[in-house]
Recover the amino acids of this structure.
């Protein structure tokens, strides 16, 4: 927890209930993770609301988020258990059930991180997603090769390079638009444009691995390009709209 953030939160706590809804949420998010500010909150508000020993906002706001968190975790858990049971019933051992479990984690953890954190939540969620994607690839390779005896070792030649290409396009788009302070449409446009070289390189890598002739998928490349131009135009329109409004 950085000091600057704690100071801002304490200023907001000092408003003693006159803060906006957004600030209330920020306080609630922060004191959940920061013990010092939690104590500060209890003491500051406790003096004014002696009948309220538990932080009021904590309860109210946490209920909503707790509900959301629990639904996500429960759904992912159920899906995992069901696929593992089916997997075990069919094969008398766990094989692809592990892959489903890994995929559920890869989706669930970034979503939870996005809900739970406050600052740079998208970046943090994407970082989790990136790390988990590589772990999922490794798990998939292990299960298909060692437990299911399917296919060869594709992880190093194809799996990791291809994942790095697409995730690299994603990150380049996000970081570039953040640095240039443009809106999300430009981010999307840039990512879609970078998907074009990623798609070509993926074709080259897989054809080298499978020893098949290399072909360029002109159809999908054209679609990426059209989608990118569309997103770009929407970004321009959105900026014009913002300028007009201010
Ligand atoms: Zn703090």
């Amino acid at each position: 927890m950085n000091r600057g953030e704690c100071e801002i939160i304490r200023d907001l706590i000092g408003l003693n209930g006159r803060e906006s809804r957004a600030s209330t949420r920020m306080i609630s998010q922060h004191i959940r993770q920061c013990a010092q500010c939690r104590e500060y909150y209890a003491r500051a508000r406790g003096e004014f609301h002696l009948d309220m020993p538990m932080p009021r906002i904590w309860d109210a706001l946490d209920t909503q988020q707790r509900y959301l968190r629990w639904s996500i975790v429960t759904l992912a858990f159920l899906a995992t258990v069901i696929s593992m049971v089916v997997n075990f019933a069919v094969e008398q051992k766990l094989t692809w059930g592990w892959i489903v479990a890994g995929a559920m984690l890869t989706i669930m953890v970034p979503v939870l991180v996005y809900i739970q954190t406050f600052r740079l939540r998208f970046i943090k969620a994407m970082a989790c997603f990136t790390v988990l994607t590589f772990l999922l690839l490794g798990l998939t390779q292990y299960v298909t090769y060692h437990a299911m005896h399917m296919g060869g070792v594709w992880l190093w030649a194809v799996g990791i390079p291809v994942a790095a290409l697409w995730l690299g396009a994603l990150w380049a788009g996000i970081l570039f638009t953040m640095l240039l302070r443009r809106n999300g449409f430009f981010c999307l446009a840039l990512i879609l444009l970078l998907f074009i070289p990623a798609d070509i390189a993926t074709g080259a890598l897989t054809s080298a691995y499978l020893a098949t002739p290399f072909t360029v998928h002109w159809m999908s490349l054209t679609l990426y390009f059209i989608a990118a131009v569309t997103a770009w135009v929407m970004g321009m329109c959105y900026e014009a709209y913002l300028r007009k409004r201010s």
Q: What stands out?
A: The first helix runs from residue 3 to 14. The chain has three domains: 3-48, 62-151, 154-246. Residues 1, 6, 9, 30, 34, 36-37 surround zinc ion (CB under 6 Å).
